[in-house]
Amino acid sequence: MQLRILAFLSLATLVGCYPFSQEWHEKTCEYDDQYCDTPIYLNPDDLQRLPIPVYGNSVPLRRPGKLLQSGDLLIVNDRYSGYHFMDISDRQNPLRIGFYPLTGATELTISNGYLYVNSFTDLYAIRLADLLDASYSSDSVKRLTDQFSLPPQPSEWIEGATFKYEVLRQNHPLIIGYDTTDGRRFLYGVQQ
Q1: Are 36 and 162 in contact (CB under 8 A)?
Q2: Is residue 2 part of a domain?
């Protein structure tokens, strides 16, 4: 009889603790995918699309990177997103010309009228005159694929995310951000 009472009390204790166990799962994301932040992986299709410049001042600078000045032109890398172009002929009042969206953009240089930039593993050569005078077309850019290796998973891209342990330890493609359980989105370490 005592054994049955003890078994009943043990079962009642386990059932009574279930809500606490569920709350623990929500916070630590150890065992149940439904409570985890959702990783956003690098989409190879994004690397295949020809970038289309956005002219004017409509694209905000989110993550400034390297700068390059050439005469009255200033190019500012928006890390992992693309390049902003500015006319700095009036140094006190720079004018935004536009933005060239390019996934994985981090490096840039100018040589012989071409802007050379990277897109993760690819190298782009863009005719600068076409980009600046808005006559840019598919003929204005040459792309060499697989010139560089993908970077290791930068920890700042996933800092603060709550992923299952297995998500980060398996051979997944590059995680570039995550959607949180409360509806926020982070890409390349910046909240969108």
Answers
A1: yes
A2: no
- CA-based nearest residue to 176, from 185, 102, 73, 184: 185
DSSP state of 113: T
Domain that holds residue 96: 44-144
Direct distance between the N- and C-terminal alpha carbons of the chain, in angstroms, rounded to an integer: 62
Contact criterion met (CB below 8 Å) for 120 and 42: yes
Residue 129 lies in a domain: yes
Rounded to two decimals, the pTM is: 0.75
Asked whether residue 79 is assigned to any structural domain, the reply reads yes
Give pLDDT tens digits for 11-47. Answer: 333 333 333 323 322 344 555 555 688 888 888 887 8
Give yes or no for a contact between 95 and 135, defined as CB atoms under 8 angstroms apart. no
102: phi then psi, degrees, rounded to nearest 5: -150, 110
Per-residue pLDDT reduced to its tens digit, 99-133: 999 999 999 999 999 999 999 989 999 999 999 99
Give the phi and the psi of residue 167 in degrees, each rounded to 5.
-60, -40
